[in-house]
Amino acid sequence: MTDGEREPATGLVLTTPGGSRFLFDPGALCLELLPTGGPGDYARYEVLHRPSDLADWLPRSRLRLPAEAVRISADQLTAARTLRDALWRLATARAHGDEAAVEDLAVLNRAATHPPLVPQIAPDGTAAAPLPADGAQLVSTLARDTIALLTGPYANRIRECGAHNCQLLFVDTSRPGRRRWCSMERCGNRSKVRALRARRETEEPAPVPPPGSSTGPVPVPGHRTFTS
Predict the structure, then answer these.
(1) 152: pLDDT confidence band, cut at 50, 70 and 90?
(2) In which region does residue 61 sit, left (phi positive, over 0), alpha (psi from -120 to 50) or beta (all else)?
(3) Which residues contact 218 (CB under 8 A, 6 or more apart)?
(4) Which among 4, 53, 80, 192 has the fewest CB atoms less than 10 Å away?
């Protein structure tokens, strides 16, 4: 994002291991939590080490709340990470057409039993949360958003990015339902570049040796050349 550009209405600005930045809109609040880390191999991307890390996520999420709007304890941070890890497995299972694990559904339902954040509007027209709001309310809000996604009209449009080395998950809310990439800016563009390069290599004509340089047959791409 360049200086002077406005923040997008939805979506996260993610940074790759190489340092480049791109906009990723997963299409749902709960899926915005996934890039903060996860179970198994995703643990190396963990960024929620302290309660303040989860608070710092608030203004970047769809909630657009200031970091100080929600008070988060260490136990509530653990609950958020537990929910996130279950959500990774549930959303991945749905994206691949697999059955959801009963244990993960239990985590989701348990988190949703707490009262959620109460939506409010500030005098300047921005979203605000009434204080005292705590991490349990935030976790409940995320769990309820997950349940709404998994039981709603877009439940079968949860996708995994089509790039072979990207596992980001999103819900395809486009009208035609043909979204393939986490971001056209990143994986979509890289796919286009690879396809163009492959097409050029295929279309490049075989070199023809100058007269008298060889008495052998000229190789033709895609065909064997037999010699006696």
Answers:
(1) very high
(2) beta
(3) 206, 208, 209
(4) 4
Buried b (16+ CB within 10 A) or exposed e, 126-148: eebbeeebbbbbbbbbbbbbbbe
Please, which residues bridge with residue 121 across strands?
Answer: 127
Other residues' Cβ atoms within 10 Å of the Cβ of residue 93: 16
Tally Cβ neighbours within 10 Å of residue 198. 10
Write down the pLDDT at residue 59: 93
In this prediction, residue 205 has a pLDDT band, given cuts at 50, 70 and 90, of low
Q: Could you give the CA distance from residue 162 to residue 170 in angstroms, rounded to a whole number?
A: 11
Q: How far is CA 140 from the centre of its chain?
A: 21
Q: Is the peptide bond before 17 cis (omega within 30 degrees of 0)?
A: no
Helix 102-111 to helix 74-95 angle, to the nearest 10 degrees?
A: 130
Distance CA 5, CA 170 (A): 24
Token pair, residue 63, equals 């909630």
Place of tokens 């791409």: 221
Find tokens 């959500």 and name the residue: 87
Residue 147 pLDDT? 98
Residue 3 CB contacts under 8 Å (≥ 6 apart), including other chains: none
